[in-house]
């Protein structure tokens, strides 16, 4: 029973969010939305514990497709960074604002970059590419691009308001569609260029401007039991985000990049992680 504490805890956290938002905002959508996400995540963790190899990918598809197709395309909610700015400036604390607050700003204080491993619809596609394990752990010096992307999206939405552009809602829908096409294209090109499925996450994604500092303080963290570790280095080799798993400090190399994929856990020959 002890081993099922994590999926049960995750389910309870999401159910608490679901019920709180449902009652606070008097909108039953939030009960459905966060219950669905919580069940999908808990199911993935449960299947992982049961030893099912594709557990994480199942959750990623369940949540990613729901957000991209149902919320994004069918319900016209721009859940990208632009959507967050848009709802923030209109003063609407719903949809994208709540999504960002829960998944990308305050949620990472609890579950770190879990969003990136289990829910992101961009990574959901990139993880199908052939470069699951990075060839070189040397980082390119282009991480600054994420800040340029972050500021560009802010300026884009701000200008729509400053210049009183008509039909901003329509522009938001198109920016969601075009933005996603550009993200997928850039992500696929970078993956092949650097032979790394997650190159987009490491250098381009503007969401990491929120995710990285918040996940530094994450409650759920991958830790190494030094008494069992034989320093074989396998965990670092399989980590798609180049995290130095054997260092337990918060300032470990690429520590804010861990996506909780559990590849290091699965591959450690001494069950030290
Ligand atoms: S870094 Fe960005 S693109 Fe990558 S998984 Fe996280 S949110 Fe998605
Ligand atoms: S894979 Fe396990 S034993 Fe090997 S270095 Fe990592 S933690 Fe230590
Ligand atoms: S392999 Fe381990 S350290 Fe690396 S991202 Fe996955 S869970 Fe985190």
UniProtKB/TrEMBL annotation:
GO terms for cellular component: plasma membrane. Keywords: 4Fe-4S, Electron transport, Iron, Iron-sulfur, Membrane, Metal-binding, Transmembrane, Transmembrane helix, Transport. SUPFAM superfamilies: 4Fe-4S ferredoxins (SSF54862). Residues 220-249, 254-273 form the 4Fe-4S ferredoxin-type domain. One of its GO terms (molecular function) is metal ion binding. The chain crosses the membrane at residues 28-49, 61-78, 84-103, 115-132, 144-163, 172-194, 200-220. InterPro entries: 4Fe4S_Fe-S-bd, 4Fe4S_Fe_S_CS, Electron_Trans/Redox. This is 4Fe-4S dicluster domain-containing protein. The lineage of its organism: Bacteria, Pseudomonadati, Spirochaetota, Spirochaetia, Spirochaetales.
């Amino acid at each position: 029973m002890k081993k099922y504490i994590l999926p049960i805890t995750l389910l309870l956290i999401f159910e608490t969010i679901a019920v709180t938002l449902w009652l606070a905002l008097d909108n039953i959508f939030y009960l459905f939305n966060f219950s669905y996400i919580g069940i999908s995540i808990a199911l993935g963790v449960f299947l992982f514990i049961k030893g099912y190899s594709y557990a994480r990918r199942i959750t990623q598809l369940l949540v990613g497709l729901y957000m991209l197709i149902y919320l994004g395309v069918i319900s016209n909610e721009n859940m990208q960074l632009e959507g967050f700015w848009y709802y923030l400036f209109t003063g609407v604390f719903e949809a994208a604002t709540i999504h960002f607050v829960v998944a990308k700003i305050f949620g990472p204080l609890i579950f770190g970059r879990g969003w990136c491993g289990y829910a992101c619809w961009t990574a959901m596609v990139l993880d199908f590419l052939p470069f699951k394990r990075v060839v070189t752990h040397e980082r390119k010096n282009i991480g600054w691009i994420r800040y340029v992307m972050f500021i560009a999206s802010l300026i884009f939405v701000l200008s729509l308001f400053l210049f009183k552009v008509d039909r901003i809602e329509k522009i938001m829908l198109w920016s969601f569609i075009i933005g996603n096409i550009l993200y997928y294209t850039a992500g696929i090109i970078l993956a092949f260029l650097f032979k790394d499925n997650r190159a987009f996450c490491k250098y381009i994604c503007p969401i990491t401007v929120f995710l990285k500092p918040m996940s530094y303080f994450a409650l759920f963290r991958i830790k190494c039991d030094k008494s069992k570790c034989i320093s074989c280095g396998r965990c670092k080799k399989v980590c798609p985000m180049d995290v130095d798993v054997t260092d337990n400090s918060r300032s470990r190399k690429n520590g804010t990049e861990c996506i909780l994929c559990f590849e290091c856990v699965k591959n450690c020959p001494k069950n030290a992680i």
